[in-house]
Specification:
The chain is mainly alpha-helical. The chain has one domain. The chain is built from twelve helices and no strands. It is globular and about 50 Å long.
């Protein structure tokens, strides 16, 4: 069924808020890491909090759809691809390469998603989308490039980031299929809930011994709740809603806006400096994302 202009408009609003929350997430995560919170513990807590709140609210409002037995595998794959595999690839990949290099690899996700959707769902690839994505990747490179223009290459880091890219593509296929049967709120709630056990072995192996060093105060608690409610719950639900209204190809390129939000937020609290090159990087990213959406009125 063709979505109305109003529904598509809401889809664009939803994706912009999702990118806002995900962009801010890096500031909150950095704060937690600076207070000795291990990576797996952060993800586990945010998923557990998000699941507890959403399951309770949706159950009380009778909005949580039960999952049909035939769809168990699809939900399991959805949670396995993202957040589990994606966070593994991205977070550990960042340990071996510069953030600038990682940002460029991650910025290729929209193209990989479009290719995957072409083979999995026969979704056509528009030339405007490809050009817009490549332009936005150039903007990401400008935004994240170090002052000396050097990039640290690592095969291990590249492979881990490649895992994150492939996980995002697999997630997109599963998400598109599940949204044909379930609401965005239902998909997001079960996605987070199912992913929780995936992290338990890693917490027991890597994180438990680091727990005594964690600093618990009002700022770390607020950061955890923001990550849980705004990022793991809210942003994923908004992203799913946008995919339902606009298609995953149109939605995925907006992820290249995330570095802009992160830069502005980090600059506001003194973690980053704002340069002329970064300003033009923002302009190029926005131009690329905008160009990728030009055929909206003529499609479908």
């Amino acid at each position: 069924m063709k979505n109305s202009a109003k529904e598509k408009g809401f889809g664009y609003i939803a994706i912009l808020f999702a990118m806002l929350f995900w962009g801010l997430s890096f500031v909150w995560i950095k704060h937690l890491l600076n207070n000795n919170f291990p990576v797996f513990t952060i993800v586990f807590i945010r998923l557990a909090l998000a699941s507890a709140v959403f399951v309770t609210v949706l159950k009380l409002r009778k909005k949580l759809q039960p999952v049909a037995r035939a769809d168990y595998k699809d939900f399991l794959l959805l949670a396995f691809f993202e957040p589990f595999l994606y966070f593994i690839g991205e977070d550990f990949g960042l340990k071996y390469v510069d953030a600038s290099y990682a940002a460029v690899i991650i910025a290729l996700i929209p193209i990989v998603i479009s290719i995957t959707m072409y083979f999995a769902e026969h979704t056509p690839i528009r030339w405007e989308f490809v050009v817009g994505t490549l332009v936005s990747v150039a903007g990401v490179l400008m935004l994240t490039m170090s002052p000396n223009g050097q990039i640290t290459f690592s095969l291990k880091g590249t492979l881990l980031l490649g895992l994150a890219v492939l996980a995002a593509a697999g997630y997109s296929v599963q998400l598109t299929r599940l949204l044909r049967k379930y609401s965005p709120a239902t998909v997001t709630t079960w996605q987070n809930f199912i992913a929780i056990p995936f992290y338990l072995p890693f917490i027991l192996i890597f994180d438990v011994k680091q727990w005594p060093a964690m600093t618990w105060d009002s700022t770390t608690v607020v950061s955890l709740f923001c990550l849980a409610l705004l990022c793991s719950a809210g942003a994923y639900m908004l992203y799913s809603y946008s995919v339902k209204q606009l298609t995953v190809n149109k939605t995925s390129i907006f992820t290249n806006l995330i570095p802009i939000v992160t830069l502005i937020a980090a600059a506001a609290i003194g973690q980053e400096t704002f340069t002329q090159t970064k300003f033009w990087g923002i302009v190029v990213i926005v131009a690329g994302v905008t160009f990728s959406q030009l055929r909206m009125k003529n499609e479908e």
